[in-house]
């Protein structure tokens, strides 16, 4: 019985890496590795895994863990001179022993606060002082919430700019059975066509080949419908105007060392992000970016989906 176990527990994960397990009274769980400050598991009260982690994921620095929710900071992808997706995803974060109080009642919420501070090596690549606090919360209904607060602590008076993404890998039954609602008719930058700008057509987005797009200025609510699983993920975001959609498909999957050849069928990345326009903080300023995920049963049959109902739930 999960009722016997603590709501928040620090234990050892793969290869002896530290991880924090969050438990919710009805049985949902989440796991967060200090390596990368990365959520690697989120299960509903039936014990079903909702996030994808690669069958070939390498749980060992310096390679970031392939799956879950890597944090891309201070750079998304190759939009700058830093390493791909920045360094936050392959640094060891620490647990904040004195987290700030929760704004609302805390008693039924399991949460952990992690901190990323710059190392000497990071400062050479990105010469800024900052404090990055990440709160991961498992809500009473099993919802998963991530809140990032990044503060400029430069003492030289300099502002800094960054791009950011919660690079979420959703677990899906079969990529061909999945659709995304909430991104129709929006503009996107196509990473497969030199970041050229296009406008999405009017239908829900479905998948039949490689996709790597940055949708710009999206609504704060996006739905991912898994027809076969009869499950809908609802992604809510705040402070993050863009949404990246990525699936490598078969050829690219084979070229990614830590991804199984068939894994692309069972994953879909929909990433709450700030990519098109970088975010700028002056000394003393703080930015907050929030992601909230819920997984609900899809109350529809094939061809009878009312998109409005999904997005309003
Ligand atoms: O292999 P990674 O460095 O983890 O990146 C995986 C993917 O992340 C994002 O979704 C980018 O848009 C893709 O271009 C990139 O291929």
Concise structural overview:
This is glucose-6-phosphate 1-epimerase. This protein has one domain (2-183, 218-312): Distorted Sandwich (Beta-galactosidase, Chain A, domain 5), CATH 2.70.98.10.
Oligomer: single chain
Task: State the CATH class.
Answer: Mainly Beta
Report the span from N to C terminus. Answer: 30 Å
Proper CATH architecture: Distorted Sandwich
Radius of gyration: 19 Å
CATH topology: Beta-galactosidase, Chain A, domain 5
Overall average residue pLDDT: 93
Element layout with pairings:
Layout lengths: L7 E5 L5 E6 L5 E5 L4 E6 L27 E2 L21 E2 L14 E7 L3 H6 L4 E9 L5 E9 L7 E7 L2 E3 L6 E4 L5 E4 L5 E4 L11 E5 L5 E6 L4 E8 L3 E6 L1 H7 L11 E15 L4 E12 L9 H6 L1
Antiparallel strand pairs: 1-2, 2-3, 3-4, 5-10, 6-7, 7-8, 8-9, 9-20, 10-19, 11-19, 12-16, 13-14, 13-15, 15-18, 16-17, 17-20, 18-19
